[in-house]
Amino acid sequence: MTAPAGPTTRFAPAPTGRLHLGHLANAIYVWGFARRLDGRVLLRIEDHDRQRCRPEYEVALLDDLDRLEIAADEPATDELRVGPSPYRQSDNGVAYADALERLARSTEVYACDCSRATFATWQASNGRPWSGPGCPGGCLARRLEARSGLTLRAAHGDGEEAWEDLLLGARSGPVSEDGDLPVRDRNGNWTYAFCVVVDDIRHGVDLVVRGEDLADATPAQIRLARLLGREAPPEFAHHPLVRRADGSKLSKADGATAIAALLGAGSSKEQLFGEALQRVGLARTGEPVRFEVAIGRVRRG
Ligand SMILES: [Zn+2]
């Protein structure tokens, strides 16, 4: 494969439900930035959470992408259908285990038995939520043995990280707003933050295009990437979310916005692209547009 002239970005849905209008808006931004910057798009299946993800949702997600004729530069949906792939998180446990070893050489990784109740108790007696490095139970110093039922955290330090967001402009924030970052949860799942940072390194992703609800998680992820040996963080573009009429975030439970349901009820894919554009403010009206036209509406902030 020839090296891309521009950045490598990714479309990375989690198979915890059906593809909905929020995913479509994200796809428009992802492919829009790739087009504008002469980059390429990877498709990644983010199924790190083994309790919430289901293989049938992955199949449905691939079907929906095919139906919409949205194709990544790599891999083809058929490659994901036939077997293990470097682009499916559940097939790559070795990569995360290796990364954990690497992380443990650059900082302390420790088992933590704090529960939600531990955080709530600390908050009740201190009048504010726990923030800053560590955890309310002081687990780093307790040297608990790592085992099932305990969270693994990385002591990723204090202070702030800053970045120049392609849509939000100059941003910065604390790296440890909720304490040290969990890298593996109490059920044994690698966490979202750990997986995406490791994946973006191993896949050569240098532009992350995602919803603005993840902007606050960015400083910790920049720090984690540095601890894993990444010198230059990726660029970030955090875009508006498709919201419900009451302003709340769209979730996968909203059947009314599921792509398959809308197509099944007679909407064309062009109508869906138009609606997604309008709902994130990229078009005044929701008139039908082709995907190629929709992604041309994406501009830097
Ligand atoms: Zn703890």
Features:
301 residues, 11 helices, 9 strands, binds zinc ion, 3-stranded antiparallel beta sheet, two-stranded parallel ribbon, globular, 36% helix, alpha/beta
* Biggest sheet strand line-up: 3-4-7
Unreliable parts = none
* Main sheet attributes: strand count, strand direction, barrel closure: 3 strands, antiparallel
Shape label? globular
Straight-line N-to-C gap: 32 Å
Gyration radius from CA atoms, angstroms: 20 Å
Structural class: alpha/beta
Order of helices and strands: EHEHHHEHHEEEEHEHEHHH
Chemical compounds bound to the protein: zinc ion
Mean pLDDT: 94
Number of helices: 11
Total DSSP E strands: 9
DSSP helix fraction: 25-40%
Q: Proportion of β residues?
A: 5-15%
Description:
Helix 1 packs across helix 10 and helix 7 packs across helix 8. The strands form 4 sheets. The chain has a 3-stranded antiparallel sheet with strand order 3-4-7. It starts with 7 loop residues before the first strand and ends in a 6-residue tail after the last helix. The chain is of the alpha/beta class. It is globular. Helices cover 36% and strands 14% of the residues. A hairpin with a 3-residue loop joins strand 5 and strand 6. Bound molecules: zinc ion. The site of zinc ion has 6 residues, from loops.
In short:
The chain is an alpha/beta fold and 301 residues long.
Element layout with pairings:
Layout: E1 8-11, H1 21-36, E2 40-43, H2 55-68, H3 77-82, H4 93-106, E3 109-112, H5 116-126, H6 139-142, E4 151-154, E5 160-165, E6 169-174, E7 181-184, H7 192-202, E8 207-211, H8 218-227, E9 235-239, H9 259-264, H10 269-279, H11 291-295
Helix pairs in contact: 1-10, 7-8
Bound molecules: zinc ion (ZN).
Residues 112-114, 135, 137, 139 line the site of zinc ion.
